[in-house]
Amino acid sequence: MYRSRALCASLVLAFGTAGLGVSAAPPAAALTPPVAFTADDLPTWQTNGVVWALAQAGDTIFVGGTFSQVRPPNGETGDPQNAVNFVAMNAATGKPTSCRLSFAVGSGTATVRALAVSPDQKTLYVGGYFGSVNGVQTSSFAAIDIASCAPRPGFHAAFPATVRAIAATSDTLYVGGDFSTADSQPRKRFAALDATTGGVLPFRADADEPGRAVAVSEDGKYVALGGDFFYVNGHDSHALAVVDATTGANVQSYRLGFFSRTSVVKTIDADADGFYTGNEGTGGGVFDGRTALDASTFDQRWRDTCLGATQSVLAYDSVLYSASHAHDCSTMDEFPDGRRHHLMAEPTDDPTLLGWFPDTNDGIGEGIGPRAMTIATSGTTKYLWVGGEFTTVNGSPGQGLTRFASGPDIGVPWVPDDVSVDSARADRVRISWRSSIDTDDSVLTYKVYRDGAATPVYTVNGESFEWSRPRVTFNDTDVERGEKHSYQVTATDGAGNTSGKSAALTVTVPNW
């Protein structure tokens, strides 16, 4: 692993002697490896409500939720645009495209809760609670031709209640939600549809409580189901089950105890190594974190135990990104109970938090924060889009939507603080400071400057996190009795972004 808490805890000792010429951590990188995105949020058009779902086709991002307008980013000019529970956005510019779709309902509140794109990227599938799309009658499910931005002729699927999850293969759609029928055929909370016609397939995976998440294994043979349920096809299986992709028959059931009674699965993603779940729960002893399931056995590979309901997980390039409001990861030797962290990353093979911490607030609605994520590529740049209930991003106004790019990294580390300078002996000056923070690079390079010189007298690398900021110490032995010196410290990330200098502190070397 890249990260070493033992080194982190011993920085004050490793740096205690001048002239060692060694680092207590690996060299600083532009981003904490293997994280693929900076923590610097980019200007993005905003919603006036909650974003529940995101999907992408090429360089277009599809956004679904409960909102009526989108508007320019804070501080930018432009008029709001009507956007009834849906907007299509350009991944690279953060602006709406010309695609306009309105999802409405005759009575109640319409909402889009699930989005998925066909593997050939020609069709967008939309689920939620709505009765029409641009005036075309539907029943909580629609297929949209992406090229024309219009409902696809010949596709019909009808659900009498909210659709909350969709997973698409080239020929099959797996759907989860609150329904008990699909096109008037009995299908409790989960169903499979023909991807071309919307016709209901024989697949049966009936559950007793709402379905909230579906994901298909990379080989297409299995489907992971998540939700509030306690039974699937009559078998004890609480909140999670793996079923056969053709028949819906149980392949792996998870009895009560694998997850606590009040813990439900809100999100599932898959890669070549298996499935990943994110949970939300209430009460004492609840499970709110993430699990990784083996691709062959579907047994648990690892589990993190952070508290703070997880709403979305996204596996990409050996990293599992998560959207939650994690407030206590002390059981994992991470941050203690306290302020909420809404966006995090960990390796897909080990539940250890990586040094990537862009942040939002809890926001409106249920006060959950972020709820959905997707990744798109435009040119050579990749973009991680995040949607949810938040109204701020990295401390600045930003509602409903934000995005992060693969580069460039322009965030500047904090100025080293709590600096002290003292000299108790005639042959040395001791300079000590608390290590800094950078939200997408946990290893920083520190430079100590003496008497305002342009060249540092000491350079060293150190690893730190918001909740673990060990002191760094340097003993300057290139001094003489009675001399007076001043010292300043900077922090630089792997991209070369350098903090300001700490305030100059002066000391006089004693004569004894």
Describe the 3D structure:
This protein is mostly beta strands. The protein has two domains: 5-30 and 412-508, Immunoglobulins (Immunoglobulin-like, Sandwich); 46-405, YVTN repeat-like/Quinoprotein amine dehydrogenase (Methylamine Dehydrogenase, Chain H, 7 Propeller), CATH 2.130.10. 2% of the residues lie in helices and 43% in strands. The chain has a four-stranded antiparallel β-sheet, with no helix packed on it. Strands 19-20-23-24 form a four-stranded antiparallel β-sheet, with no helix packed on it. The radius of gyration is 26 Å and the shape is elongated. Residues 1-23 have low confidence and may be disordered.
Radius of gyration: 26 Å
What overall geometry do the principal axes of the alpha carbons give? Answer: elongated
CATH topology heading of the largest domain: Methylamine Dehydrogenase, Chain H
Number of H/I helices? 2
Distance between the terminal alpha carbons, to the nearest Å? Answer: 47 Å
Unreliable stretches? 1-23
Main sheet properties: 4 strands, antiparallel
Beta content: 35-45%
**Computed structural class:** mainly beta
The CATH architecture term of the largest domain is 7 Propeller
CATH class of the largest domain: Mainly Beta
Strand order of the largest sheet: 8-9-12-13
Percent range of helical residues: under 10%
